[in-house]
From TrEMBL:
Name of the protein in its database record: Transcriptional activator NhaR
UniProt-listed InterPro entries: LysR_HTH_N, LysR_subst-bd, WH-like_DNA-bd_sf, WH_DNA-bd_sf
HTH lysR-type domain residues: 2-59
SUPFAM superfamilies the record matches: Periplasmic binding protein-like II (SSF53850), Winged helix' DNA-binding domain (SSF46785)
Gene: nhaR
Protein origin, superkingdom: Bacteria
PROSITE patterns assigned: HTH_LYSR
Keywords, sorted A to Z: Activator, DNA-binding, Transcription, Transcription regulation
Family designation: Belongs to the LysR transcriptional regulatory family.
Amino acid sequence: MLNYKQLHHFWTAARAGGIVRGAERSGLAPQTVSGQIAALETELGVNLFKRQGRKLALTETGRMVLDYAEEIFRLGSELEEALRSRSAGRAMPFRVGVADVVPKAIAWLLLAPSMDLAEPMRIVCREGKFDALLGELAIHKLDVVLADSPLPPSMDVRGYSHALGTSTIGLYATPTLADALQGSFPACLDGAPLLLPGAEASVRTPLLRWLETERLRPRIVGEFDDSALMRAFAEAGAGLFPSASLVGEQLCRQAGMVHLGDARGVTETYYAISVERRLTHPAVRAISEGAARHQLGGSTAD
């Protein structure tokens, strides 16, 4: 079994830049630290350091072990902080990754129940590309990832996709742009300026297929990986844009947008991806149960 005391001595020395400096930080004799690292190398059957001139440098294996050690002791620090927070009555961190294709209003709708728990939570949100967020989930830097698609089978990440709900997709425009459109929906979309989600958005292909089925050829004036940026362009009148009908009322009330109509048969499903098959984290459970209460769905996939 791995000796974590020995690993900690290696980690300290590697971060300090050598055994002597590592010993100074630990308050031990260099011979003691050197002996602990030598014992670790013997146990693992590898060399962690190599002589480089008059100094020691990490071997390739040593760099790999250091990466793991960084993660191990980072998680240990988080555990200590979580226990201190709980005993002191402070809010526990809830680390959420939000894929940049998920509309911010949807993210808020899904996350809101986690803020009403008896045990207070401090939400730490990270927005980014889906693949990058899954990587952080795999090494436990995130508790959950919110996305518009389930965990891809090709991803070498152990995780489970929990479907939270599905929304129809509507088309929205500013009042000025809506007044300028000719005819009724959906014929009015033909030739109209359209803003599209980027290639990574799950709704893009079904939407384009629907336009083709309806024999509509809007003028695509922009494509956006970030849903908030697409909405900003739409609110400025650059073009009409698709959005989940779940937040359509909010778009019309707060942003003054006009609902033109829904793309028949085009839907978007939202997922909470976690490393747990059965949800045990209280905040993640609250998200799933909140989605079910609001009739957003709530089945579990994969």
